[in-house]
Amino acid sequence: MPLASTTLSSLDMGIVVAYIIGTTMLGAWFTRRQKDVKTYFVGDRNVSWWLVLISIVATETSTVTFLSIPGKGFDPGSGIRPAGDLTFLQLTFGYVIGRAIVAWILLPQYLRGEIFSAYQLLKERFDVRVQRTASGLFLITRTVADGLRLWLTGLLLQQFTGWNISTSILVLGGVTIVYTYLGGMEAVIWTDLVQFVIYICGAIIAAAYIIHLLPGGWDAYVQTTSGAGRFRLIDLDTNVLKAQTLWAGVLGGAFVTMASHGADQNMVQRYLCARSLGQARTALVLSGLVVAVQFTLFLGIGLGLSALVGAGQMAIPQGTHTDAVFGIFIVRYLPTGLIGLVVAAVLASAMASFSSSLNSAANAVVADFYRPLRPHHTEATYLRIAKAMTSVVGFAKVAVALACIPMMMSGGDYAGYRSVVDQVLAVASVTLGLILGLFGLGLLPGRVSSASALWGMVFGFIAAGGLWLSSTLGRPVVAWPWLAPIGTLTTVLIAAFANKYLGLANVTRPTHD
Questions:
Q1: Residue 243: which of 467, 490, 493 has the closest Cα?
Q2: Among 177, 261, 349, 414, which residue has the fewest nearby CB atoms (within 10 Å)?
Q3: Considering the entire predicted model, what is its pTM?
Q4: Distance between CA atoms of 467 and 178, rounded to whole angstroms?
Q5: Domain range spanning residue 110?
Q6: pLDDT tens digits for range 267-321
Q7: Total domains, the chain
Q8: At 88, is the pLDDT very low, low, confident or very high (cuts 50, 70, 90)?
Q9: CB contact at 8 A, 492 and 440
C-alpha cells in the first residue's frame, strides 16, 4: 500500500506536541482526586449529562471514523462494488432506535445499586461463570478492535513523521496509556470533551478547505457529486450481502447499537457516571443524533476528496488504500498551521476512543475477575490493581496493532476496498451479539439456567463467527450488519430450547465466586 511521507513543519509539529503534552498534563491533574475505584472508574457518579453525551460520542469516534468513513465516501467503486455515497448513513437509523431501546429497558437496571461493570447484572441473573464469560469476550473483542484502530492511526503518523509504523503505534499508545493511568475516568471524560472539540473543528476546517480548493467551490461540489449519483441515501435492495441497505441499517444497526451501547462495558461505564437515570437517558439518545451528524460530515469529506481528484486538483498514488486518502490530503494539501491542527484532530479522535477503552477494560478485569476473587483488600489496593490493569490492557492492544502490520499492509484489490471501519464493526458484531443475547435471556419471563445460557453462547458464536470467517476468507454469506442479530437470536433460541427440552433448566447454579 503506497503511502505518502511528509515531514511536518516546525509550526505544525509544535501544535501536535502541545496537544500531546496538554493531554498528558490533564491526566496528571486528576491524579490528586483518585481515592478509590469508584472515583477512578465512574467519576464518583457526579458527571453532567452533556459531558456523558460527549464522552459517548468521543468514545465511539476513533480514527476509524475520522479516516475510514471519508474513505467510504471517496471510494471510486469497481466492478464488485458501487462508488461511495451516503448510504452508510442508513446505519444511523438503527443506531437511534437501538439507543432508545437500551435507554428504557437496560439503563434502569444499570443505575441501581453499586454496579461498576455491565456484567455484574449477568451474575445476578445467572452466575459468575456467565458473568466472566461475557466480560472475557468483551476484553478480547475490544483488544482486537482497538488494535485495528491504533494501526490506522499509526498509518497516518507514519506519513508525516517519517517514523516506521511500529514506532508510530508505540508512541501513540504509550502517551494514551500514561494519561489514562494517571487520571482515571474523570481524566478520560474531560479529555474526551477537549478531543471532541478538536476533532470536530479539525474536520470542519478540512471540509472547508476541500471546498476552497475545488474550482467552482460549493456549487461545483454539489453539481459534481449529485451528477454522479453520490448523494444517494436510501438503498431498498434486499440482498443480504450488501451492508449499506435500509434493512441492514435499521435492523442490523439497531442490534449492533443495542449490543455496543447496552452490553459493552466501554459504553455502560459512561452511563454509570451520570447523576441520574434521566440524565443518562438524555445523553444516550441524543448521542445517536450527534453521531448521525458526524457521519454526514465525514462522508461529505470523502465525497469532496473524490470531486477534487476528478477535477485534477489532487493526485492519489496508484494502489492507495481508501482509508489513507484523507490522510494524504491532510499532509500534502493543507497549508502550514492547518496541517498541525487537523493532525491533532486525528490524534484526538484516536486517543479519546483508546483511553476510554483502556479504563473500561481495566474496570472489567477488576470488577468481574480480581475483586470477587480477592474481596477483602483495601480500596487503596484495588486502586493500585486498577491502574496496573490499565497498563496491562494497554500493552495488549498495542501488541495487536503491531501484529496487524503484516496483515493489513498488503497491496492489491483487497487493500483497496476492505474498509477498516467494516472490519472493526464486523469483529465487534460477532461477540457483542452473543452478550446482547445473554441480556435478552435475562429479560425473559421465567428462569433460564446458566448452563443453558452458556450453550446458547457457544452456538451463537458458531453461527455468527462462522459467517464472519466465511466473509473474511472471501466467501461471504451475509453482510456484517446481520452478524449481531444472528448471534443474538441464535444465543436466545438455543438457550431457551436447551432450558426447556434438554433438562438443563434444573442445573444447579454455583453460589461461590
A1: 467
A2: 414
A3: 0.82
A4: 38
A5: 10-501
A6: 887 888 888 889 999 999 999 999 999 999 999 999 999 999 988 888 888 777 7
A7: 1
A8: very high
A9: yes
